Amino acid sequence: MLIHEGWENHLRVDGYVVHAEIRNDKIWIYYDGIEDGITEELVASGVPKDRIVLAFHPPEVRQHTGYAIP
Question: Under a CB-based contact definition with an 8 Å cutoff, are residues 69 and 53 in contact?
Fold first, then answer.
């Protein structure tokens, strides 16, 4: 997980920037808040699409993404 945290109007705030997990030799991406996307960065760095699960999509949609199906 990569999170941002700080203060806003005297209140403590935080939130995800990226939430990902390595499970069964695949990278599961649950949340991608990076402007150009961590998924595209991974592919550009040589990670095959069949090793990336877009877990923020419902299971029935994942088969249409071009990425891994768990």
Answer: yes
Q: Provide the whole-model pTM.
A: 0.81
Query: Exposure of 36 by Cβ count < 10 A (0-12 exposed, 13-18 middle, 19+ buried)?
Result: exposed
CB atoms near residue 55 (< 10 Å): 21
The fold of the 16-70 domain, in CATH, is TATA-Binding Protein (3.30.310)
Q: What is the residue-level pLDDT of the chain in tens, covering all 70 positions?
A: 888 889 988 999 888 889 999 999 999 999 998 888 899 999 999 999 999 999 999 999 999 999 999 8
